[in-house]
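Notes to self after the call with IL:
- keep both proteins in one doc
- input above output, always
- annotate only the second one for now

Protein 1:
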Amino acid sequence: NLECKFCPQHILPEHIVKKNMDLDTFKKLIDDIKLFKTKPKVMRFCGLGDPLFNKKFLEILEYAAKSKAIEKLELITNGILLNDNLISNIVHYLDRIIISIEGLSSEDYKNFTLRNVDFEKFVKKIEILSKKKSKSKIHAKIHNSAVQTNERKELFFKTFSKIVDEIYI
């Protein structure tokens, strides 16, 4: 949903396989993990493209959580696809939600990601996510190229530090 200039999908799109894992394959993966002698410490949903693109993501997440096969579940997302349904559900299953912030304004998003993003609406989504969280920690991170000056660093921290649990550049 974004085309970040620094992402491999933008740099070498012909070398990227753009397919979602299907639910049956994921269930087999979890069932196989349950056979391990010790639980893996973390399963992180991330990769090339936002995991929220997968229409079965909530089912996948729920299966992983209910299996208790992994100690912690984490998600890395750009947050653009968050909606009321996702927000209301993922907070019950994920231990950590890492949101990749790609700019500090709608203009930044257009410049860095080649997409139109209503930045104020985006920040409000993260505020809603933060208010609805139960066990999840919300983490915001930004690429250093988006905060080259002290003023931009301060703006990043001012915008997000009150609505997330962890923050870094």
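Protein 2 (the one to annotate):
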Amino acid sequence: MKISLQRKEYKNSKSIFDQESNPLKKFKNWYKEAEKKVLEPNAFTLSTSYKNKPSSRMMLLKGIDEKLIFFTNKISRKGKDIASNKFASMVFWWKEIDKQVRIEGKLKELPKKDTSKYFYSRPRQSQIAALVSIQSSKLHSYNDLILEFKRIEKKYSKNNEKIPLPKFWTGYTLDPKLIEFWQGGNYRLHQRLEFKKNKNRWIKSVLAP
């Protein structure tokens, strides 16, 4: 496969270097822009680490306030990574608007009531899928998973019984300590703006591409 000549040219857009001193406010503004053009603007890469061995996967963001929120299975590989190392990073890549945001911080498990509230806001079939999937475990066959899904679906279909919240299903918040904004530019002169938290103060720096 020859991929060395594959190349996307970027065009300079409005400068990202403005007077905004709050990176979370800037992130929310970029997110609103992405919502207009990006298919899944809440999709991000979550990177975790266990004994200095990193692993990454795509996730979906489910909340933004002063922290960023997502949900997952805590007995999955990522869950086990988080149990041993609370530091993680997120990357949002919005190719349709030539923007990227990189965020680093510490994870904290959400209270059970918050996890439960979100779990029961999901479609019923998604609740069942979370219950039957022992995420990252090895399957004899994919068909076994489908059969288990149908079994559980039938089990709780009588009187439309409530699907039990799996003990292994939880939510996490990432408390950002570093947020970097990137925008593609002409000739690979990309624009990069970093915010690094020092105690309760954000320090802003322009970075070379």
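Annotation: The chain has a mean pLDDT of 95. Strands lie at 43-50, 53-60, 63-64, 68-73, 87-94, 99-109, 169-183, 191-198, 201-207.
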